[in-house]
Amino acid sequence: MTPLRDVLARRRVLVVGDVMLDRYWFGGVERISPEAPVPVVRVTREEERLGGAANVALNVKALGAQVTLMTVVGSDQAAQRVRSLLAECAVPSLLGEDPQLRTIVKLRVIGRSQQLLRVDFESEPDHEVLAQMVEDFGRELARHDAVLFSDYGKGGLAHLPRMIEAARAAGKPVLVDPKGREYGRYAGATLITPNRAELAHVVGPWSDESQLRASASALRERYRFETLLLTRSEEGMTLFDAQGVAHEPARTREVFDVTGAGDTVIATMAALMASGMTARQAMPLANRAGGIVVGKFGTATVSFEELYG
Question: Catalytic site residue 208?
Answer without folding.
Answer: no
